[in-house]
Write a structure and sequence with these properties.
The protein is built from eight helices and no strands. It is 79% helix and 0% strand. The chain is an all-alpha fold. Helix 4 (70-79) packs antiparallel against helix 5 (86-109).
Length: 183
């Protein structure tokens, strides 16, 4: 009698486990379908995004970025900053940095250096956070280097009228890389 009860209990537990796994796989399939649609440029209804996995929201943020809807992309990424997976958190922070850096470059090209400087600082912070989560994230390392080189150049533009000699020596001490001209 005890053997029969144990067998029925094992069957019931395995059936419940199978249902839970089936439901999980169904959720993953829906997420993958949404990500595929977003990657193809199709819009996914908001009700499918609200309770979706962080990966789906990340894909939606990248669609916003491609459409140059940067405020919406930033808002979407900020909602998923606390994703449970450290690798996903690194990607989220990397993409935040990319948006901030892009906006800083746009502001710099428009000669709005004072508006671009905080964006570069935010980009560097995001890249550093991504590297803290994944020290082998080469793209984040590269983009951090780009942001590090951009900020001193922006200082050069904003300080030109103050003291060119002082600014030149200050730039030399802060920018890593090759010197320009002979000493």
């Amino acid at each position: 009698m005890m053997k029969a009860i144990a067998l029925w209990a094992a069957l019931l537990l395995s059936s419940v486990a199978m249902l839970v796994q089936g439901w999980t796989l169904y959720g993953i399939r829906l997420s993958n379908r949404s990500i595929t649609a977003l990657a193809a440029g199709k819009d996914v209804p908001l009700e499918k995004i609200v309770n979706a996995a962080p990966q789906v929201r990340l894909a939606r943020a990248m669609v916003f970025k491609k459409q140059q809807r940067y405020d919406e992309a930033l808002a979407t990424l900020n909602l998923i900053l606390d994703a449970p997976d450290p690798a996903l958190q690194a990607k989220i922070r990397y993409n935040l940095g990319n948006i901030y850096l892009h906006l800083a470059v746009v502001k710099t090209e428009a000669m709005a250096v004072n508006e671009a400087m905080p964006l570069v600082a935010l980009a560097k912070q995001a890249y550093r956070q991504a590297l803290a989560l994944d020290s082998q994230f080469w793209d984040a390392k590269y983009n951090l280097e780009v942001a590090m080189r951009l900020l001193p150049e922006m200082d050069k533009v904003s300080n030109d009228e103050e003291s060119p000699v002082n600014q030149k020596s200050q730039l030399w001490t802060t920018v890593p890389g090759f010197p320009r001209g002979l000493p």
